[in-house]
User: Fold Methylmalonyl-CoA epimerase from Hymenobacter aerilatus.
Amino acid sequence: MLTNLEHLGLAVHDLSAATALYTKLLGVAPYKQEHVASEAVDTVFFKVGGSKIELLAGTSADSAITKYLLKKPEGIHHVAFEVDDIRAEMARLRAEGFVLLNEEPKRGADNKLVCFVHPKSAAGVLVELCQTIGNSEVVRSEIANGEVNYPSA
Ligand SMILES: CC[C@@H](C(=O)O)C(=O)SCCNC(=O)CCNC(=O)[C@H](O)C(C)(C)COP(=O)(O)OP(=O)(O)OC[C@H]1O[C@@H](n2cnc3c(N)ncnc32)[C@H](O)[C@@H]1OP(=O)(O)O
Ligand SMILES: [Co+2]
Assistant:
């Protein structure tokens, strides 16, 4: 089940400038910065009520964000929904005919497992599913099976 609008992902060229701008716009400081090597992005997160803004800058030519910004202006890059069971939601969306960009959930930013839905199968919107890595049995079972690796502390 999709339970919440988890975050809006915004693609930016200059993370420092965008962070300063959003700090003024939202009237709050970011609560987290994180580099996600697997996605080749640097991120900055702001809390807005029960949701979040994720600023994303690419860190290599291969990054989806770098490629996106070669063709499109800065702005909303993806919409992310919280799910309670990411594998169940992936199976449901596949059965509904959506094209998933990951075979398996992968580790995202801010302690999440994530999966992307291709914008061509979602009315032009890149959709991200996010499940908080916590105590759920699904995640425990994945860890037990060696499918998900927590970063070393
Ligand atoms: C920090 C981790 C994580 C989190 O925890 O929150 C993140 O948010 S990471 C965010 C960055 N990572 C990703 O976006 C991964 C998923 N994305 C992809 O796999 C690719 O970007 C893509 C969506 C498959 C597109 O890649 P590609 O096919 O190589 O690019 P093209 O430029 O050829 O695009 C094809 C087609 O799709 C349109 N497009 C591309 N990106 C978007 C987008 N963000 N929103 C809407 N539409 C998009 C693009 O315009 C092309 O359309 P046409 O020109 O009409 O063919
Ligand atoms: Co995101």
